[in-house]
Amino acid sequence: MNRSTTLPALALALALTGCGAGSSEQDTGAGPGTAPATSAPGATTTGAAADGAVSAEHNDADVLFAQMMLPHHEQAVRMSEMLLAEEGVRAEVADFAQRVIDAQGPEIEHLNAMLAAWGAEPSAGDVHGTEHGSDAGMGGMGGMMTAEDMQALETAQGQDAARLYLEQMTVHHEGAVEMARDQAERGQNPQAVELARHVAADQEAEIAEMERMLRELPDGT
Predict the structure, then answer these.
(1) 3-state secondary structure of 82
(2) Where do the coiled-coil regions begin and end (predicted)?
(3) What is the number of domains present in the chain?
């Protein structure tokens, strides 16, 4: 399996470091408007950080977004790995699953970096979604698969696995889009807001792509 993420990671880094900067109320030693990646919650430095460092400016919505989107992305990667382990899967669907891994891997790294910069811990929730409701938005991780859903995907074979993956991932993406839209409205950290907009736009396009692939899958196995 090709797990190279160099190009997606570079593109994400360029997008995120292009966010606008504000003023600094504290001299951090890293330059105006720049906060070190290890800044703790409550730091007064504002604005986007330079050189890819995460800005200390954030609110509760930013933290919750990162805590929830992290296991959401991790589950999407796991689902994609399950599909790629199957034989007889249509090449187009397998290629899509690899793209999910390649795109969300760097975003997982950035979500972890944001939480570390804010002194926040990752969510302790089950990545299978068994501890979360099905409602989308910041109040729940919408679209998360249950343990039973993951087991069904793992045991499915061939085109049945491809169909189930596309159906599950469509629901999964819809939940991510809702969370991302909410973050874009409520978040304060410019990099987290930019990431949310990036996630929403990319996954909306992928939902349309998955719906097309579902229509084109042959009936039966």
Answers:
(1) helix
(2) none
(3) 1
Q: Residue 213 is part of a domain; what is its CATH number?
A: 1.20.1260.10
> The domain containing residue 79 runs over which residues?
57-117+138-221
Q: H-type helices in the chain, by residue range?
A: 6-16, 60-84, 91-117, 147-155, 158-186, 190-216
Mean pLDDT to the nearest integer, 83-103: 96
By the 8 A CB rule, do 26 and 43 touch? yes
Q: What would the pLDDT profile of 144-198 be if each residue is shown by its tens digit?
A: 999 999 999 999 999 999 999 999 999 999 999 999 999 999 999 999 999 999 9
Say which residues have a Cβ less than 8 Å from residue 105's Cβ, sequence separation at least 6: 3, 5, 8, 9, 77
pLDDT at res. 218: 85
Contact call for residues 210 and 96 (beta carbons, < 8 A):
yes
Backbone angles phi, psi at 150, to 5 degrees: -65, -40
Q: Is residue 171 part of a domain?
A: yes
pLDDT class of 141 with cuts at 50, 70, 90 = confident
Question: Positive or negative CA dihedral for 214, 218, 219, 221?
Answer: negative
Work out the burial of residue 153: count CB atoms within 10 Å of its CB; fewer than 13 is exposed, 13-18 middle, 19 or more buried.
buried
Question: In this structure, is residue 22 part of a structural domain?
Answer: no
Total residue count of the chain as it appears in this document: 221
| CA atoms of 116 and 97, how far apart (whole Å) | 28
